[in-house]
Each structure stands twice: as C-alpha cells, then as structure tokens.
Amino acid sequence: MPKPSQVLVVLFIALIPGHIYIGALGMEGAFGAVGTGEVDLNQAREHHDLWLAQQLANEDRRGQPSATPAE
Q1: Which residues in the chain come in under a pLDDT of 50?
Q2: Are 43 and 29 in contact (CB under 8 A)?
C-alpha cells in the first residue's frame, strides 16, 4: 500500500499539466498577464472583482487632498 506522501506526490504531478494549461491557454489573456503583470478591465472585473474595487476606490481618492495632522 502506498504511503500518504507518495499519493500526494502523484496527485501534484497529475495536477501540474492542468495548471499549466489553464494558465497558458485555458483563459484568454492569462498568458500575457503572467508575462506583463497587467490584465484588461474585463478580466480584472471577472476574476479579481474585490481587488478591482479597491483599485478604483484608490484612484478616485487620488484627486482629493490628503488629511494633514492637527497642530
């Protein structure tokens, strides 16, 4: 009977090709995003909606004056 560690090794080796496929070809724009670190707005909205909301909120605040400490 195989040891639990051997089962995990086989499982991870079996999952690697699927992970590579999804990251490179399975999702449109994913391969370019890995290389540049940038995604278009639609992909960000679909896969990273919380992050996008934070980025848009920060962008809205950039034009406003920041708080200054009281004297």
Answers
A1: none
A2: yes
Are 16 and 8 in contact by the 8 Å Cβ rule? The answer is: no
Domain that holds residue 40: 8-58
For residues 35 and 29, what is the distance between their CA atoms, to the nearest angstrom? 10
DSSP string spanning the chain?
---HHHHHHHHHHHHHHHHHHIIIIISTTHHHHHHHS---HHHHHHH-HHHHHHHHHHHHHTTSPPP----
Q: Judge whether 48 lies within some domain.
A: yes
Does 66 reside within a domain?
no
Whether this prediction's pTM lies above 0.85 is answered by no
The rounded Cα 8 to chain-centroid distance in angstroms is 25
